[in-house]
Amino acid sequence: MLSPTENVRRLRQYHPPLAGRAGLRLDFNENTEGCSPRVLARLRQISAEDLGRYPERGPVEAVAADWLELPPPQVLLTNGVDEAIHLLCETYLQPGDEALVVVPTFSMYEIYAAATGAHVVAIPAGEDFRFSTEEVLSRLSPRTRLLAIANPNNPTGAVVARAELLEIANRAPAAAVLVDEAYFDFYGESVIDQVGRLENLFVARTFSKAYGMAGLRAGALAGSAAQIPFVRRVASPYNVNAVALACLPQALSDGDYVRAYVDAVRRGRARLESELRALGIPFWPSQANFVLAQFGPRREAFLAAMKRRGVLVRDRHTDPGCAGCVRITVGTEEQTDRLLAALRTCLDEIARAREVPA
Predict the structure, then answer these.
(1) Under DSSP, is residue 72 helix (H, G, I), strand (E, B) or coil?
(2) CA 61, CA 76: separation in Å to the nearest integer?
(3) Which of 52, 176, 291, 325 has its CA 20 to 30 A from that of 235?
(4) Bridge partners for 202 per DSSP
């Protein structure tokens, strides 16, 4: 009788709550305005013949490499950052190996690593979700073959200093060190300039966040010219679809659009953090396009009240150390106005409900 591998049978399934997302979508850290008008114009030009051919990744990969200021042999376009994580796990992990992650973090690191039969070592973050470089270094062993670090981290928005990331890569030369920079645009600091100097360092970027192309599934993995060819061996030659490849150069060409959106998000993030502080809601300062806040026993009532007002936010209470937490994406100025108004109204409503005698 056909049966999946024991590794797959033990996997924890990831269930993103994608259904019924009507309203202001501040729940998935997407660009809340969508893609550049240049991308939409290119979409309208795509023909039936374009869709009838297998996609050619190479020319667009060269454009992306130029944009990243790297030689083309150091860049692989992927079906979102998710595929980049998957490919690294398939390239470097086998049963008996170890993959290190600091939790809470993006769930797919653990899922893809565990699917290979590797043992996932989950290291709890320090106080206030501080990344503990000392603890990570102390857990390195001859079996360590992968370290995955989101910088900024999801769902906390916390960051790791560049010097610490490079120290980890230097101290673990036999392990692939992935620095997932999906939220780089909202932070501005990177280690991508080091991928040619440290053979075990990889950097992932996405076009789902600031670039507004989450539905097209486009990402990039940068690494050394010595290692990227091995990752290519486990990637399909047609992994990025023709529509995404047609649109990506247009997205990269419209820097003004992205900068304007990122600037609006940064201002909105500061406003949201200021409002949470004024309302006495604990939160963690963020360098991403979202803020993680602690609503405690009010969490369920808050989520329901916001949804009734057409504002979607993300419940993160099941993440390690995140009991009572909600993650709130930040969008444009007008959307932040709506968010803050709904936030105040919902908290007032919850407070009044608690004052009513039983």
Answers:
(1) helix
(2) 7
(3) 52
(4) 178
Determine whether 19 is exposed, middle or buried from the number of CB atoms within 10 Å of its CB (0-12, 13-18, 19+): exposed
Q: What mean pLDDT, rounded, does the chain reach?
A: 96
Q: Tell me what the mean pLDDT of segment 31-49 comes to.
A: 97
Q: What is the reported pLDDT for 176?
A: 98
What is the distance of C-alpha 230 from the center of its chain? 24
- Reported residue count of the chain is 358
Take residue 346 and report the two structure tokens written for it: 């919902």
CB 299 within 8 A of CB 324: yes
- Note whether 302 and 105 are within 8 A (CB): no
Q: For residue 339, what are its two tokens?
A: 């968010």
H-state helical runs in 172-237? 228-233
Tell me the chain's radius of gyration from C-alpha atoms.
Answer: 21
Q: Give me the pLDDT at residue 13, please.
A: 78
d(CA 74, CA 222): 6
Query: What domains, with CATH codes, occur in the chain?
Result: 6-30+256-350 (3.90.1150.10), 37-254 (3.40.640.10)
| Residue the block writes with tokens 């932040």 | 336
CA distance 104 to 284: 13
- pLDDT, tens digit, 9 for 90 and up, residues 234-251: 999 999 999 999 999 999
Nearest to 288 by CA among 36, 35, 29: 29
105: number of CA atoms within 13 Å, CB side?
Answer: 31
Phi-psi sector, 295: left (phi>0), alpha (psi -120 to 50), beta: alpha
Q: Are strands 311-312 and 290-294 parallel, antiparallel or unpaired?
A: unpaired
| Residue pLDDT, tens place only, 51-101 | 999 999 999 999 999 999 999 999 999 999 999 999 999 999 999 999 999
Contact 121, 151 (CB under 8 A): no
Structure tokens at 219: 């990402």
8 A C-beta contact, residue 297 and residue 10 = no
How is 227-265 classified by DSSP, letter by letter?
THHHHHHTS-TT-S-HHHHHHHHHHHH-HHHHHHHHHHH
